[in-house]
């Protein structure tokens, strides 16, 4: 295992392993790569497997978000990815002070695979498809900056199990929303906020990755009005909210000390 900044090699590996277009590769390696640490495994001088770790925190506990786990298709079946993951976990515990790790399996079939590697704690979310009003309420929206997004997440969710991104990673997340032709906005001077983009399968459906919602959901009508205003041709929104031991299995956690609650708030979980 070694830490690497060899973008051309990693880009080729990603191209072999993921359904990622050139624009997304430009985005990640141009904007996101600097905010994580990437590790590779080599055999015979050839990079056969790689993964990245973004720093996160939970109630002041340092953790890592594992991202982009991949193995060269012709090198699969030798346990390279799992061996690399285990080495990276040990390194991050001993050298980075990380006490837990999160990842989002790329498909439902991979949940069991990672659970056998110690990622035994499920984090759930609830996804609900809601109709949008034909005539929205009058609202004011302003484009989110990284610092404002970071502070609004804290305001709405610090008391409910917020898994926190560093501010610089928040900036990359906003870039991703823009790549998806979406909007990341503050609503009515901080009454709420949202991160959203059109569904790739149906442009009439808006994916709301994250919204500033209180426990009573009193700000939901404001969020729905904002979405209708930002996307005049949309008819519905797919809204994601944290869920306690219910709904869709969303993330897996490998806890080494205090695991996140099942309803921990974690948005924009990059696969």
Walk me through the structure.
- Strands 1, 2, 3, 4, 5, 6, 7, 8, 9, 10, 11, 12 and 13 form a 13-stranded mixed beta sheet that branches.
- α2 packs antiparallel against α6 (167-179) and α5 (146-157) packs across α6.
- 30% of the residues lie in helices and 33% in strands.
- It is globular.
- It contains 7 helices and 13 strands.
- The model has no long low-confidence stretch (mean pLDDT 92).
- With 271 residues, it is of the alpha+beta class.
- A hairpin with a 6-residue loop joins β10 (192-198) and β11.
- The protein starts with a strand and ends in a 16-residue tail after the last strand.
Shape: globular
- Tell me the structural class: alpha+beta
Oligomer: single chain
H/E element string? EHHEEEHEHEEHEHEEEHEE
Overall mean pLDDT stands at 92
Number of strands: 13
Q: Main sheet, how many strands, which sense, barrel? A: 13 strands, mixed
Question: Rg from C-alpha positions?
Answer: 19 Å
Please indicate the percent range of residues in DSSP E strands (runs of 2 or more): 25-35%
Question: Which ranges are low-confidence, i.e. pLDDT below 50, for 5 or more consecutive residues?
Answer: none
Number of helices: 7
Helix fraction by DSSP (H/I, runs of at least 4): 25-40%
From the N-terminal CA to the C-terminal CA, the straight-line distance is 22 Å
In short:
This protein has about 270 residues and is α+β, with helices and mostly antiparallel strands. It is built from 7 helices and 13 strands.
Q: How do the helices and strands line up, and which of them pair or pack?
A:
Elements: E1 2-4, H1 7-17, H2 22-32, E2 37-43, E3 46-58, E4 61-71, H3 80-96, E5 100-103, H4 110-115, E6 121-131, E7 141-143, H5 146-157, E8 163-164, H6 167-179, E9 183-187, E10 192-198, E11 205-211, H7 220-230, E12 236-243, E13 248-255
Parallel strand pairs: 4-5, 11-12
Antiparallel strand pairs: 1-2, 2-3, 3-4, 3-8, 5-13, 6-12, 6-13, 7-9, 9-10, 10-11
């Amino acid at each position: 295992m070694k830490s690497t900044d060899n973008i051309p090699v990693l880009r080729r590996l990603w191209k072999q392993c993921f359904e990622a277009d050139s624009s997304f590769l430009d985005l990640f390696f141009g904007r996101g790569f600097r905010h994580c640490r990437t590790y590779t495994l080599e055999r015979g001088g050839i990079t056969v497997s790689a993964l990245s770790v973004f720093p996160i925190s939970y109630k002041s506990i340092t953790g890592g978000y594992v991202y982009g786990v991949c193995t060269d298709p012709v090198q699969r079946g030798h346990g390279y990815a799992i061996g690399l993951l285990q080495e990276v976990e040990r390194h991050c515990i001993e050298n980075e002070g990380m006490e837990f790790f999160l990842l989002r399996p790329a498909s439902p079939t991979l949940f069991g695979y990672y659970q056998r590697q110690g990622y035994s704690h499920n984090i759930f979310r609830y996804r609900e498809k809601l109709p949008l009003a034909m005539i929205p309420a009058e609202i004011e929206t302003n484009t989110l900056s990284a610092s404002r997004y970071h502070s609004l997440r804290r305001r709405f969710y610090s008391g409910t199990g917020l898994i926190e991104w560093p501010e610089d990673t928040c900036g990359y997340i906003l870039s991703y929303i823009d790549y998806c032709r979406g909007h990341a906005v503050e609503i009515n001077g901080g009454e709420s906020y949202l991160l959203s983009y059109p569904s790739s399968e149906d442009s009439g459906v808006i994916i709301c990755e994250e919204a500033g919602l209180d426990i009573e959901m009193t700000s939901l009508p404001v969020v729905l009005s904002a979405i209708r205003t930002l996307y005049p041709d949309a008819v519905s929104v797919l809204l994601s909210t944290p869920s306690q031991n219910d709904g869709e299995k969303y993330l897996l956690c490998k806890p080494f000390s205090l695991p996140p609650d099942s309803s921990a708030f974690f948005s924009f979980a990059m696969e």
